[in-house]
């Protein structure tokens, strides 16, 4: 028995070792299968340094665990394409790759145009408009040049001579926005074009040149055209001349039954930018309330003081809160944060000086608006209608009614009870929280240790402090 037990122990140990080896081999095979099923990982860079420092070891460990097939781990390359997208394209056909490359080039070109327009980089836009391979990108650059002004007129002329139909349409539209007199020959050629878009832009741009020959063509041909689109473009072109005789024509189309012609006439009155055109727009606001939005936008094109006065008159007689909010929004845009006075009493008049016996300048009509410049120091009692009132005199900047006057505005004193005062204040700014203000405070500079020994922050009064046990602190 004893010999048999001695013999069985080595056999038992051998069997146990064989079982452990088979288990380890099976585990390694399973691990290999799992590694092949998992997505591939990025290897460590081959051109890395051969230093044995801990920083390199940690960097290699981090890069070896990065999964490139996971969309959350995207690394943008110089061309804006992630490594994840590049790996997906390996399985695409050449046609699909070409389409993707085209879309990326288009997006990149449009973004470059927007950035160049924001930064006022004319040379970049010129280069894109003349040399980019995609027509839509060239058209976007051409339109950007038109919005930026007269700096790109020569480039637009070159595009019209050399480029295709779509880009030429954009170039004519840009020239119409600029309205340079050097483009007049191109406009005369454009009205004879077979392309309707080029025709409409040419008729509209001819008026902005303010050339007499262009005005004659607008009156003789454009307005009399049988095509409504050409008539609308001609109306917008005539409005740029700011001739009062054209107001009758605009009123005629304003009373037409065609809604598009009505809106075009309102837009033309806004481009006219005269006091007479503003009055027509104010009257139309009462008769055609369905065109309120167009009328407010048309008045907003007139950035002068008269446009502000029109908005104040509309605000005083506003029948709805929605209209009042639209007007206030326009006043905020032009930053008209002043005090205004509107005449609301019949029989009001303006005076030369701020006292009752001063010389009268002229009678005021109800609804006249003036910007308040000053208020008299003293109060006066004066008869207003059948009653006596006590108030200050206000110095107003009023519109001149004398057609022979050299200046369009004049200053005059008006008694307070004749006016309805309104102050336009800027919208309140959002107050920052106390915590944010404390974070924005400037941090104190570095204080040397020698100075820190002289003043103790914990005891600024210099009182004696009890000694604390323990060793002194070391730097």
From TrEMBL:
<feature type="compositionally biased region" description="Polar residues">
    <location>
        <begin position="58"/>
        <end position="72"/>
    </location>
</feature>
<dbReference type="InterPro" id="IPR016024">
    <property type="entry name" value="ARM-type_fold"/>
</dbReference>
<feature type="region of interest" description="Disordered">
    <location>
        <begin position="31"/>
        <end position="93"/>
    </location>
</feature>
<protein>
    <recommendedName>
        <fullName>HEAT repeat domain-containing protein</fullName>
    </recommendedName>
</protein>
<feature type="region of interest" description="Disordered">
    <location>
        <begin position="426"/>
        <end position="475"/>
    </location>
</feature>
<feature type="compositionally biased region" description="Basic residues">
    <location>
        <begin position="431"/>
        <end position="444"/>
    </location>
</feature>
<dbReference type="Pfam" id="PF13646">
    <property type="entry name" value="HEAT_2"/>
</dbReference>
<dbReference type="InterPro" id="IPR011989">
    <property type="entry name" value="ARM-like"/>
</dbReference>
């Amino acid at each position: 028995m004893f010999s048999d037990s001695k013999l069985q122990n080595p056999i038992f140990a051998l069997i146990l070792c064989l079982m452990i080896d088979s288990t380890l081999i099976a585990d390694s095979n399973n691990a290999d299968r799992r590694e092949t099923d998992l997505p591939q990982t990025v290897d460590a860079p081959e051109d890395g340094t051969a230093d044995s420092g801990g920083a390199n070891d940690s960097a290699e460990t981090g890069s070896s665990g990065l999964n490139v097939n996971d969309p959350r781990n995207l690394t943008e390359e110089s061309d804006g394409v992630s490594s994840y997208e590049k790996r997906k394209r390996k399985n695409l056909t050449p046609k699909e790759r070409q389409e993707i490359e085209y879309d990326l080039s288009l997006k990149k070109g449009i973004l470059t145009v927007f950035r160049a327009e924001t930064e006022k980089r004319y040379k970049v836009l010129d280069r894109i408009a003349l040399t980019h391979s995609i027509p839509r990108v060239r058209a976007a650059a051409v339109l950007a040049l038109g919005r930026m002004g007269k700096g790109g007129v020569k480039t637009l002329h070159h595009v019209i001579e050399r480029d295709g139909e779509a880009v030429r349409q954009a170039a004519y539209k840009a020239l119409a926005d600029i309205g340079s007199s050097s483009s007049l020959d191109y406009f005369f050629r454009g009205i004879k074009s077979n392309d309707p878009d080029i025709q409409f832009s040419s008729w509209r741009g001819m008026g902005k040149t303010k050339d007499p020959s262009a005005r004659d063509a607008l009156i003789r041909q454009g307005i009399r055209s049988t095509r409504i689109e050409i008539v609308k473009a001609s109306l917008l072109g005539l409005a740029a001349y700011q001739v009062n005789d054209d107001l009758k024509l605009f009123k005629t189309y304003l009373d037409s039954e065609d809604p598009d012609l009505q809106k075009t006439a309102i837009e033309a009155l806004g481009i006219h930018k005269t006091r007479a055109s503003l009055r027509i727009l104010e009257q139309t606001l009462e008769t055609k309330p369905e065109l309120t939005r167009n009328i407010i936008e048309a008045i907003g094109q007139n950035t002068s003081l008269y446009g502000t006065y029109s908005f104040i008159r509309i605000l005083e007689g506003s029948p709805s809160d929605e209209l009042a909010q639209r007007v206030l929004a326009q006043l905020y845009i032009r930053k008209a944060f002043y005090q205004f006075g509107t005449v609301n009493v019949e029989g009001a008049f303006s005076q030369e000086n701020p006292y009752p016996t001063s010389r009268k300048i002229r009678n005021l009509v109800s609804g006249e608006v003036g910007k308040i410049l000053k208020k008299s120091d003293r109060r006066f009692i004066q008869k207003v209608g059948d009653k006596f009132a006590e108030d200050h005199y206000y110095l107003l900047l009023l519109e001149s009614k004398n057609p022979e006057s050299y200046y369009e505005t004049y200053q005059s004193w008006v008694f307070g009870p004749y006016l309805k005062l309104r102050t336009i204040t800027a919208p309140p700014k959002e107050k920052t929280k106390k915590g944010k203000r404390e974070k924005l405070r400037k941090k104190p500079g570095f204080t040397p240790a020698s100075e820190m020994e002289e003043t103790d922050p914990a005891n600024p009064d210099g009182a004696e402090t009890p000694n604390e046990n323990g060793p002194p602190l070391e730097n």
